[in-house]
Amino acid sequence: MSSIRTMTRIEPGQFALVTGATYALLGIIFGVIVFLISAVVPAATGAFGGMGHGWIIIIIFPVLYGIIGYIGGLIGALIYNMVAGTVGGIKVTVSD
Questions:
Q1: What's the longest Cα–Cα distance across the chain?
Q2: Rg of the chain's alpha carbons, rounded to an integer?
Q3: Can you tell me the distance from the alpha carbon of 70 to that of 11, in angstroms, rounded to the nearest whole number?
Q4: Going by DSSP bridges, is the β-strand pair 2-7/90-95 parallel, antiparallel, or unpaired?
Q5: How much is the mean pLDDT over the chain?
Q6: Taking the domains of the chain in order of start, what are their residue ranges?
Q7: 42 CB contacts (<8 Å, ≥6 apart)?
Q8: What's the whole-model pTM score?
């Protein structure tokens, strides 16, 4: 049995945490890709060469992506809550 419900509010702290963790995982993936490219093509290290050894990218990317994802998720949830309060929320189908 499924029913249509309206999502009228998102908990900003929880949404920010999930978004930050998701972006941190993406940062790991992108960091590894950039590391591998910079290891194979030395000229590709251009912007990242001054950061020290290439492996530091694998640490910096997830941290920066996680912070940016957290802040973006928090702001996004707050904006969604304001908009949903005015025009209504997103309709989703849920099942038992």
A1: 58
A2: 19
A3: 13
A4: antiparallel
A5: 87
A6: 37-42+52-88
A7: none
A8: 0.79
The one-letter amino acid at 14? Q
- Please count the other Cβ atoms lying within 10 Å of the Cβ belonging to residue 82: 10
pLDDT tens digits for range 12-50: 999 999 999 999 999 999 999 888 887 777 665 555 555
DSSP string, the chain: -EEEEEE----HHHHHHHHHHHHHHHHHHHHHHHHHHHHH-GGGGTTTGGGSSTTHHHHHHHHHHHHHHHHHHHHHHHHHHHHHHHH--EEEEEE-
CA–CA dist 54, 37 (Å, integer): 10
Q: Measure the CA–CA gap between 51 and 63, rounded to whole angstroms.
A: 15
Contact 69, 25 (CB under 8 A): no
State how far the Cα of 37 lies from the Cα of 21, in Å rounded to an integer.
24
